[in-house]
Specification:
Layout lengths: L27 H9 L1 H9 L2 E3 L5 H18 L4 H19 L4 H22 L15 E8 L5 E8 L1 E3 L3 E8 L4 H7 L4 H14 L5 E8 L17 H14 L1 H4 E6 L3 H27 L29 H6 L5 E3 L3
Parallel strand pairs: 5-6
Antiparallel strand pairs: 1-8, 2-3, 4-5, 6-7
Helix pairs in contact: 1-2, 3-4, 3-5, 4-5, 5-8, 7-10
């Protein structure tokens, strides 16, 4: 068997002006990418490559809903704010994806708007936690944290919603809602806890409540609602989905109220987050300066494993992984 050699990073030479968790900050998305596939993390954040954007309903639907939410909250809870922010997102996507996707964009954005109307009606006058208590949306919160090794890095977060220091809001759109799993797993959820840590590091205290909202996205895998009939127009199909929403709003809207405890956050940090971040910084430091080091941190995730990130999906970085040529990828903008 040949002796193992000291190796260079899998994605090749790191460019100058490279992204840095010490300077630019590490997002939840960046950490998730690295946990799923270190090759993709290197390609995206160090080689500065990203896939050419494609119109994907499962992604744009959540984006349209969040645009409505952000516009509504930041306009002082006015529906015209939701309309304005959604219109801006729609115009951007029409320009990005071109005329061939205009009908699809219109269909999905109008459905997301109606879904948002349902959300407002459901929660605006709620006695326990009315929507009016969310007073700010999409704040960029950057905090420096110190790891057990005394290394420091920046967490770069965008909070979906807040109500001062007392309330944090996080929203998701999913094709299936598992209420029992959400309630059981939330204390070990990565984004939930990273955002709590950012809030705690910024203000010195945890929010009293976390509004964790999951909205059911129509037509996706696992969706148990109307499906399109053979001779049905898209307008008729959408109307049947809207009728189903109004008949059974609880199927399309699920709210979990978390009450964070410092002991639980500390357990997550020391049992999960901090060890991951220490390993992430080891990987990053090796990637930007591999000379003279034995590679213990950087590998390409092999095929033949079950990977939920790639299961039933077209892999965006496949060609780059296999050949080293970035066909289908473009330079990222920071």
């Amino acid at each position: 068997m040949p002796r193992a050699k000291k190796t260079k990073p899998a994605t090749g030479e790191v460019q100058e002006s490279v992204w840095s968790p010490y300077v630019h900050g590490l997002s939840v998305t960046g950490l998730q990418t690295w946990l799923n596939d270190r090759f993709v993390a290197g390609a995206r954040y160090l080689d500065n490559l990203q896939p050419i954007e494609k119109f994907e309903p499962k992604f744009v639907y959540g984006s349209y809903f969040q645009s409505c939410f952000e516009g509504y909250v930041n306009s002082g809870h006015q529906l015209r704010g939701a309309h304005a922010w959604l219109d801006r997102a729609v115009r951007k996507d029409k320009k990005l994806f071109g005329p061939q996707k205009h009908k699809d964009i219109g269909w999905w954005s109008s459905l997301a708007l109606e879904h948002f109307y349902l959300f407002v009606e459901q929660y605006k006058n709620d006695r326990d936690l009315p929507l009016s208590e969310v007073t700010e949306s999409e704040r960029n919160l950057r905090v420096e944290i110190t790891l057990p090794s005394d290394r420091k890095l920046i967490l770069n977060t965008y909070l979906d919603g807040e109500g001062g220091d007392a309330l944090m809001y996080e929203g998701k759109c999913r094709s299936k809602i598992d209420r029992e799993a959400i309630a059981k797993e939330i204390r070990w959820d990565l984004q939930y806890n990273v955002y709590l840590l950012a809030k705690y590091s910024s203000s010195g205290k945890l929010p009293e409540r976390v509004w964790y909202q999951t909205n059911l996205r129509p037509c996706g895998f696992g969706y148990r609602g109307p499906s399109k009939r053979k001779n049905e127009s898209m307008t008729e199909f959408q109307q049947r989905i809207l009728d189903d929403m109004k008949t059974d709003p609880d199927k399309y809207l699920y709210r979990f109220i978390g009450r964070p405890a410092l002991s639980e956050l500390e357990r997550f940090c020391h049992g999960c987050l901090y060890p991951m971040l220490e390993a992430f910084l080891d990987w990053y430091d090796y990637k930007v300066n591999p000379e003279g080091k034995v590679n213990r941190w950087d590998w390409v995730t092999p095929y033949g494993l079950f990977n939920p990130l790639l299961q039933d999906m077209k892999e965006d970085y496949r060609n780059y992984r296999l050949t080293g040529y970035p066909a289908g990828l473009v330079k990222r903008k920071r």
